[in-house]
Specification:
Elements lengths: L1 E5 L18 H17 L1 H12 L10 H5 L7 H19 L6 E4 L5 E8 L2 E5 L8 H14 L3 E6 L9 H10 L3 E4 L2 H10 L9 E3 L4 H10 L4 E2 L7 E6 L5 H12 L6 E6 L4 H13 L5 H11 E6 L2 H11 L3 E5 L15 E4 L5 H6 L25 E8 L2 H17 L3 H21 L8
Parallel strand pairs: 1-11, 4-5, 4-7, 5-6, 7-8, 9-10, 9-12, 10-11, 12-13
Antiparallel strand pairs: 2-3, 3-14
Helix pairs in contact: 1-2, 1-7, 1-8, 2-7, 4-5, 4-6, 5-6, 7-8, 9-10, 9-11, 14-15
């Protein structure tokens, strides 16, 4: 891991973070070409891409309803119990995110409000192939179902034999996914964005994937909604002298083992802690079955930031704006209010980040690459739309018409002013006619 030392007024810079940055141009070009081909040729293009990139393609993209319905019986009972525990806690958390329509009425009778409506359909992209992520199925599907999405489909790459992991299918069945399609990559994004002969188009696409999936999602955004363009996983650990070096080491390794491109940051004011953490990593990493990936991530993307003061350290974590932030500090809860930028915040020594990955309840689909400065975790709100509701009375119109016409004239929009003026005349006539004080002489 590379070390950055900050002293005095020095601040952490983006160049210090050693992030992978934007998607490579060649990946973007390739993903866009695949999406365009799928949009034009449908299933035939999807099939060709699956054979070319995955080395396999099922005869039918859609997994049979019977296979999905029987998936819960195909996994060990211990796994099913753990998955059910996770589902219940994830659902309980996301139920609290659901927004309701609301309305308010002014004294003149004008009604204003917001109508909240779920999107009609959503596609969940779940990585697959070499590794399986049933936890991602739960994290993507449950908020969609809580939001009230009528049609929730899942796309995921098949394994080499053309099948989908029983663990992934069990998670889909438990979370209430309506349809599953054995297709992945940029071709899957193109298929659910525009539809093919056998794969339906949807209104929203969510879920993480590789660089080609991320590039494809970015390309189709605007024609269809997306949650975010996700990059490699990352963690930032803010630790002081009370932190256990071995625990900090394990937490850094927990992100590093995802991907050689994963970014891991240790920020501390204790000059002795980094050496202890690095020594603990050397002891632990040799025991990992994913040693090569873990070492590559920590060696190439790992950064240790040593600060003179706690204030400087907190400033550094806000610059990093990491996907996951762990506060391994004395009185960690007292620091929570000073954290501005993080996808998920794990407070105190007992709050292991993998708890958040699987069972805690908050979503593990989080903003990466510093986008926590302006983005949110995946949630129910991603599957709900808001429509403003505006309902004027004649009295309300007359109250707001003058200001509206003044602004319209200032902007040179004649018909805007006319639209209000015509209603204004009608409103005045209506109120005069309906007034109990009108006489025949009037």
């Amino acid at each position: 891991m590379r070390t950055v030392r900050l002293s005095g007024d020095a601040r952490l810079s983006q160049a210090d973070l050693n992030r992978s940055g934007a998607l490579p141009a060649e990946v973007i070009a390739s993903a866009e070409k695949i999406v365009d081909d799928v949009r034009e040729r449908g299933d035939a293009a999807v099939r060709e891409c699956c054979l070319r990139f995955d080395g396999t393609c099922p005869e039918r993209f859609r997994v049979s309803d019977d296979l999905l319905a029987n998936a819960l019986e195909a996994v060990p009972g211990e796994f099913l119990a753990a998955l059910t525990h996770a589902r219940d806690q994830i659902r309980d958390f996301h139920e609290r995110e659901r927004e309701q329509s609301w309305f308010t009425t002014r004294a003149d009778g004008t009604m204003l409000g917001v109508k909240v409506t779920p999107v009609a359909s959503a596609a969940l992209y779940v990585p697959g192939g070499r590794a399986q992520y049933p936890s991602t199925v739960l994290m993507d599907a449950i908020p969609a179902k809580v939001a009230g999405v009528e049609r929730v489909i899942m796309v995921t790459p098949p394994q080499r034999d053309g099948s989908i992991s029983s663990y992934t299918l069990a998670a889909a069945a438990l979370a209430g996914v309506d349809e599953v399609y054995a297709v992945g990559g940029a071709q899957a994004i193109g298929a659910v964005a525009y539809g093919t002969e056998s794969i339906p188009a949807v209104e929203k696409i969510v879920g993480p994937g590789n660089a080609f999936v991320a590039a494809a999602k970015r390309y189709v955004s605007g024609d269809v909604g997306i949650d975010m363009v996700a990059g490699p996983s990352e963690v930032c650990v803010l630790a002081d002298g009370v932190a256990e070096p071995e625990v900090v080491a394990a937490d850094l390794m927990a992100q590093a083992e995802h991907d050689p491109m994963a970014s891991c940051y240790l920020v501390t004011c204790d000059p002795e802690l980094p050496g202890r953490v690095v020594a603990a990593i050397e002891t632990l990493v040799s025991q990992s079955p994913r040693e090569e990936i873990t070492r590559a991530s920590l060696d190439d993307r790992g950064v240790i930031v040593v600060c003179d003061t706690l204030d400087a350290a907190i400033d550094a974590i806000n610059v990093i704006a990491s996907e996951h932030l762990e506060l391994h500090c004395e009185d960690a809860l007292a620091l929570l209010g000073r954290v501005r930028n993080a996808g998920a915040i794990f407070v105190g020594p007992w709050s292991s980040e993998p708890l958040g990955d699987y069972v805690a309840g908050p979503n593990h689909t989080l903003p990466t690459g510093g986008t926590a400065r302006f983005s949110n975790p995946l949630g129910v709100y991603d599957f709900q739309k808001r429509s403003s509701v505006i309902c004027y009375t004649p009295e309300g119109l007359l109250a707001d018409a003058p200001a509206t016409q003044t602004i319209a004239h200032a902007e040179g929009l004649w018909a805007h002013a006319l639209s209000v003026e015509l209603r204004r005349r009608l409103a005045e006539e209506t109120l005069r006619r309906d007034s109990p004080f009108v006489t025949l002489e009037d």
